[in-house]
Design goal:
The protein is built from 12 helices and 10 strands. It is 46% helix and 15% strand. The strands form 2 sheets. An 8-stranded parallel barrel has the order 1-2-3-4-5-6-7-8, surrounded by 5 helices. A two-stranded antiparallel ribbon has the order 9-10. It has 2 domains: 240 residues, TIM Barrel (Alpha-Beta Barrel), CATH 3.20.20.60; 55 residues. It is an alpha/beta fold and 315 residues long. The radius of gyration is 20 Å and the shape is globular. The structure holds glyoxylic acid and magnesium ion. Magnesium ion binds next to helix 7.
């Protein structure tokens, strides 16, 4: 291990992240009662310009009136981008009036670490002025080419930063990729056209101790396509995926939870390595395969996630 280490900033279960437009309050109650681990109330792209002010008001009311924490939800708000005049009011109004009920702010279309710096600075001032005790976390969407170019710097831009999200739709637009669909494979491409970007982002996240979350899959009538995309992300180290429709919540929870067989094998690896340590051995054979301390580290990741999931289920 390097002498320089960035510890995981914060563990939160974020297998499924339900996107809820702030302009549609009829969906708030359903979101509250859903099985999503995480919910973000949206001020940004799911809200038309004429509805922005009302959406902000709806969000403030929903944060104050609904018991998100009591329903086991982490609650976040996606503000508008820093290139819009809506953004400062999103932060000021929402955090001043409901910041004590908010877990994180999701910043879209982050391009440079300064974008995060600005929101961090505003949050710090408002929290101090309003005596908000729990610091609000920051999450960023990596969804423009500039953000991907700077992803390593963005991943270390603030102590508040908890997660980066891969926003495949805007990323496709920003790269002028030949597609008009949100997520999924392009048959013209041999493999996953998003692979290198997904890989780059997850490495940046893990280097600096933050979570990596996969973004939307637009075709909610294609559960197989959704599941396949989630599995590709999970294989790389992503720990959650957006749900843009309630039907995608269960799919995300399923894919992003280590299967019982995997948990059982991980526990057996840890037990076998304990025995190996007692016998003064670094490597042993389990089920016909060599395992060593690197196997223990992989197994610990699986068991840690399974424990967090169990703890939530018991609440
Ligand atoms: C999400 O915001 C995306 O653009 O995919
Ligand atoms: Mg986007």
């Amino acid at each position: 291990m390097s002498f320089t280490q960035y510890k995981p900033v914060r563990t939160r279960l974020q297998r499924s992240e339900l996107a809820v437009p702030g302009s549609n309050p009829s969906m708030f109650e359903k979101a509250l009662k859903s099985d999503a681990d995480y919910i973000f109330l949206d001020c940004e792209d799911a809200v038309a310009p004429d509805d922005k002010e009302q959406a902000r008001k709806n969000i403030i009311q929903a944060l104050n009136d609904l018991d998100w924490a009591g329903h086991g939800k982490t609650i976040s708000v996606r503000i508008n981008g820093l290139d819009t005049h809506y953004m400062y009011r999103d932060v000021v109004d929402i955090v001043e009036q409901a910041g004590h009920r908010l877990d994180t702010i999701l910043i879209p279309k982050v391009g440079t670490p300064s974008d995060v710096y600005m929101v961090d600075c505003m949050l710090t001032q408002i929290e101090e002025a309003r005596k908000i005790k729990n610091p609000i976390g920051i999450e960023c969407l990596i969804e423009i080419a500039l953000g991907m170019v700077n992803v390593e710097a963005i991943a270390q831009s603030s102590k508040r930063l908890e997660a980066l999200h891969f926003g495949v739709a805007d990323f496709a637009a920003s790269c002028r990729a030949r597609t008009v669909v949100i997520g999924g494979l392009n048959p013209d491409y041999p493999g996953d056209q998003w692979h290198s970007s997904l890989q780059r982002m997850v490495i940046a996240c893990r280097a600096y101790g933050i979570r990596a979350i996969d973004g939307p899959f637009g075709d909610f009538n294609d559960p197989e396509g959704y599941t396949a995309a989630a599995m590709r992300a999970a294989a790389l180290g992503y720990e959650g995926k957006w749900a843009i429709h309630p039907s995608q919540i269960a799919l995300a929870n399923e894919v992003m939870s280590p299967p019982p067989k995997e948990v059982e094998r991980a526990k057996r690896i840890l037990a076998a390595m304990d025995e190996a340590a007692k016998a003064g051995k670094g490597a042993v054979v389990l089920d016909g395969r060599m395992i060593d301390l690197a196997s223990s580290r992989m197994a610990e990741n699986v068991v840690r996630m399974a424990n967090v999931i169990d703890a939530k289920a018991k609440k």
